[in-house]
Amino acid sequence: MTTTTPPVAGPLTGLFTPRTIAGLRLPNALVMAPMTRSHSPYGVPTAENAGYYRRRAAGGIGLIVTEGTLVDHPSAGHETDIPRMKRAAAAGWESVVRGVHAEGAAIFSQLWHVGSRRDPVDGQSAWTPSGIDEHGTPNSHAMTMAEIDRILAAFGEAGRLAYEIGFDGVEIHAAHGYLLDEFLWPATNRRSDRYGGSPANRSRLVAEIIAEIRSTTSPDFPIGVRYSQFKELAFTARLADTPAELAELLTPLVRAGASLFHASQRRFAEPAFAGSPLNLAGWTKKLTGLPAITVGSVGLTRDALRGDATDPHSLAALADRLAAGEFDLAAVGRPLLGNPEWAAAVRTGDLDSVVDYVKEHEDVYR
Ligand SMILES: Cc1cc2nc3c(=O)[nH]c(=O)nc-3n(C[C@H](O)[C@H](O)[C@H](O)COP(=O)(O)O)c2cc1C
Q1: Which of 30, 32, 36, 65 should be mutated for ligand 1, with most atoms under 8 A from CB?
Q2: What's the pLDDT tens digit per position in 74-128?
Q3: How many C-beta atoms lie closer than 10 Å to residue 11's C-beta?
Q4: Could you give the domains of the chain?
Q5: What UniProt keywords apply to this chain's record, in alphabetical order (predicted)?
Q6: End-to-end Cα distance, the chain
Q7: Residues contacting residue 261 through CB under 8 Å, at least 6 positions apart
Q8: For ligand 1, atom 1: residue with the closest CA
């Protein structure tokens, strides 16, 4: 990690002080958001992947959440370049973890099942809670109880393997309309058994996954849950219309042993519910008492980096809200694609070296 140059004193300094979150010592408040890159042939991380993550750690990020990593079951996803959490990939992951640790940063593995977003392969349709899209149109295979058990076991094994490999924690991907979010969302979960209906039933599978990983790792292994109101294919969708409804969904996850939450929004500055300025991470922390990561257009442009706290979208405004304790960490995604040294540049005030995100950065891998 680049620690030789002192930070520029000012409104952003608080982002760069060490802290302990969910029992984990972190050098600062900045998290690399999980971003699928599809650069791991046959699901196995390569030296190129290790270099990619190490560069962001060396560039000053405190905690890396890996790209979505498929749990080891054929229904989890069909793309062969997306990394997997499987025995054959363990050595590749070990070198990723080693490189990040060598730079003084921590790293979580994001565990993923794409649900309805898997293309039909070999005549097998995608696995989902109820076999329907949000309009009720049949589009996939409604999972049996035995199939739910298999996916629960696959997440459990993936968590255990991540722990053995040396990851500092895992993040369960329950956001953006993929399998676990399809269980959370009543539009796609119309089950009448113990996995459907009430909010507690809809969050049961995620809770069971947490408990399973907890039982095969250690009491203090950080287990995070990423969730969102919006879906990648339905930006205005909502899991909960009120804080009380959100509490009903999240409380079983806390009871199951979750350590922290990653509340995914497209823009961190937007309030989660009418009548309060708190964003989704703010409400999550308030309702659960657990640490929360915020995300969504954090420092996305150089204007946001230069703006003062009167601009609600600025990094300075974010730093104020973090200092006030609304949330604990802030994740940055797209800016890190084109700027591996983004965090160090922000810390030292070298903003001229930062290039604004453009879509083409998603095609570059370095
Ligand atoms: C190329 C790309 C890939 C992404 N892949 C994932 C993923 O694998 N898992 C996930 O939870 N979110 C994924 N996201 C969402 C990001 O983690 C993040 O929430 C989003 O980009 C908003 O943050 P930003 O404004 O800082 O980019 C992806 C985003 C991008 C741009």
Answers
A1: 36
A2: 999 999 999 999 999 999 999 999 999 999 999 999 999 999 999 877 788 999 9
A3: 18
A4: 13-363 (3.20.20.70)
A5: Flavoprotein, Oxidoreductase
A6: 18
A7: 224, 225, 226, 227, 250, 253, 281, 284, 285, 288, 290, 291, 292, 293
A8: 35
